[in-house]
Fold:
Amino acid sequence: MAGVVTRDDAVAALTGVVDPELGVDIVSLGLVYGVDVDACDVVAVTMTLTTAGCPLHDAIEGGVHRALERAGARSTRVDVVFDPPWTPERMGAPIPA
Structure:
């Protein structure tokens, strides 16, 4: 049985999560390193932030959870990593499948 939420749905939902400091969505910024959706509609996101000490970490992560839940995810997991570190060159980079 096909899931309610697809990877494309999840990625589209993430374009609605905006970094409040920069005013740009996290997908366009290149902060999202991976998106996986399992058969139970659990969406796992691997992402980074522009800096390791980002004061908006909780706000951005909360926005990711809310956006994915609105898209139909039954459960969400967000793994914030800093390797590789974010650089401006990542802006517009495709999310690996």
Q: What stands out?
A: The two ends are 21 Å apart (CA to CA). Residues 61 and 84 are 18 Å apart (CA to CA).
